Amino acid sequence: MANNNLYKGSLNTIILKLLQEKDSMYGYEITQKVKALTQGELSITEGALYPALHKLEADGFLEVEVVKVDNRLRKYYKLTERGTKETADKLSELERYIETMKVLVNPKFSLE
């Protein structure tokens, strides 16, 4: 996609939704999942992802489990109970936004 700026405001929602579906993921896994789901149209940089993950953790929406994998420490992120509620709220908010945008970009004019 030519303009990744459109996705910046949705990054937290994307992260929360992926974690809702998969239970727990590590950062690189999140970036690869987004790339795969969008067939390369959207790529999330580490510079955008990790600050978002840290903020979601600080806000109490994510918990982190550190696991040693192949002699390296890997952080797995998982939704907290609060994060599960936030995910539902964010998805509902996004659906309303999409419906509003549809009305704005494709208005149905009445002939009456």
Automatic annotation (TrEMBL):
The family database entries (InterPro entries) matched by this protein are listed as: Metal_resp_DNA-bind_regulator, Tscrpt_reg_PadR_N, WH-like_DNA-bd_sf, WH_DNA-bd_sf
Transcription regulator PadR N-terminal domain spans which residues?
15-88
Cross-referenced Pfam families: PadR
Q: Which Gene3D superfamilies match?
A: Winged helix-like DNA-binding domain superfamily/Winged helix DNA-binding domain (1.10.10.10)
- Its protein name is PadR family transcriptional regulator
Query: Which organism is this protein's natural source?
Result: Formosa sediminum
> Which taxonomic lineage does the organism of this UniProt entry have?
Bacteria, Pseudomonadati, Bacteroidota, Flavobacteriia, Flavobacteriales
